[in-house]
Amino acid sequence: MPNGPTDDELIGRYRTTQDPGCFAELFARHRKKIYLSCRRFYREGASAEDATQETFLRAFQNLGHYGGGDFCGWLMRIARNVCIDQWRKRKTESVREEVEVDQMPSRTTEDPTSEVKLAADRVIAEMRHLSEPQRRCLAMKIEGYSYEETAMRTGMSVPAVKSHLQNGRRALWLRVAGTVTRLKD
Fold first, then answer.
1. Does the model's pTM come out above 0.90?
2. How far apart are the first and last CA of the chain?
3. Cα 24 off chain centre by
4. Which candidate, 12, 22, 73, 156, has a CA 20 to 30 Å from the CA of 137?
């Protein structure tokens, strides 16, 4: 529990006084946690820092929409969305080459973590071949969204989300089965 005013008290004070020090205090309290969350998404610290800054910028711009409660949870949701948005933007800006299963190095020349990374890259590359609803539902599931949250954000029904997830997983599995079975050996 932080010393001094609570997050909600700082937000209330900011709303009434427009004192930038209130938001600066919120930034100081939560920056590290948001950065570490973004860091799990990005390997590079610079990308995680960019996502952290964008998270707080969006939070500042949308502070009027915050309804109270768990401010850190609200920030984490914004951070997750920022990371997904930036990942999608980068993905469309740079054309990724597909990794062919035949081109994957053998285990004798690479350590197991390299193989896992290559397999993960292959899964991400193969997700492009899924339908847009399947891709979107799978990406949101990977990010930790529940069926209900995914349905609400996409405008689909919960049964439709479950169907897209099931069909997307099945199609993805068929596309990457050889890659995943190589990891088991």
1. no
2. 48
3. 25
4. 73
